[in-house]
Design a protein that fits this description.
Layout (H helix, E strand, L loop, with lengths): L1 E6 L6 H5 L1 H8 L4 E6 L12 E2 L9 E2 L1 H14 L4 E11 L2 H8 L3 E5 L8 H6 L3 E4 L8 H13 L31 E2 L2 E2 L2 H4 L3 H19 L1 H5 L1
Helix pairs in contact: 4-6
The site of ligand 4H4 has 16 residues, from strand 5 and helix 6.
């Protein structure tokens, strides 16, 4: 999987490129992240990529030309890349969508700032808008990193021995509870079944706990 990221703040992505699951996936050559500084595609000496909104109003809007030129440059290398704009108006990022996206060869992520991008980019250059939640954050960079992490976890081999099959939502259920040493602390004990060494009983207890947790915290998932 190759991620191309169009952003005004490429250095933000060093956080996931250097540590953790995504960094390990990069080291294993299972994925790559290429950031593109949008200002390099500005057509003025001040490197501006935004302008005042037609019709007035607060804030600035990201212009078509630099974004379109950057996408076209990426498409020279990856003509079939799926171009995703991170926006509160997008399709909600779920486990299912992350799994679907993980099967692609190339994804281009457009990170919005200010009030967002000129609508003509959304109409003509974007394949899909994706939202990480019903709130507005200052830039699409954090949303892109969330998407990259969630998608990367679904790429075979990225997680190594800890598979993502038990991730919450993998089977439309929340994850079972986890415990580790010591087996008693402040008089709080680990459930006996987990100390029994009886794997069949442990597995059925974990399945039962996933259903109980889902019923308690996310009943809506049980309707699906
Ligand atoms: C993009 C703000 C689009 C407003 C942005 C719009 C999210 C989110 C986000 C920086 C940028 C914001 N991205 N999930 N939530 N005019 N991005 O808040 O379309 O409403 O992914 S707009």
């Amino acid at each position: 999987m190759r991620f191309d990221v169009i952003t005004l703040f490429p250095e933000m992505f060093s956080a996931i490129k250097s540590e953790g699951v995504v960094a390990r996936g990069i080291k294993k050559s299972l994925l790559s992240i290429n950031t593109w500084q949008l200002r390099d595609f500005s057509n003025n000496k001040y490197k501006n990529v935004d302008d005042k909104p037609y019709g007035g109003g607060a804030g600035m809007v990201m212009q078509v030309r630099p974004i379109r030129d950057c996408i076209n440059k990426i498409k020279q290398k990856k003509p079939k890349t799926k171009v995703i704009y991170l926006s509160p108006q997008g399709k909600k990022l779920t486990h299912k969508l992350a799994k679907e996206l993980s099967e692609l060869d190339s994804i281009t992520l457009l990170c919005g700032r200010y009030e967002g991008v000129d609508e003509r980019i959304i109409e003509h250059d974007i394949d899909m808008e994706v939202s990480i939640g019903d709130y507005v954050i200052s830039g699409g960079e954090l949303a892109s990193m969330v998407l990259i992490d969630a998608v990367s976890r679904q790429i075979p081999g990225v997680l190594g021995n800890t598979d993502s099959l038990n991730d919450s939502f993998a089977n439309n259920l929340l994850d079972y509870p986890h415990y580790t040493r010591p087996d008693t602390i402040d008089n709080q004990k680990v459930p006996e079944v987990l100390l029994s060494g009886h794997q069949a009983n442990i597995d059925s207890w974990r399945s039962e706990q996933s259903i109980i947790k889902t019923r308690e915290k996310r009943k809506d998932l049980l309707q699906k």
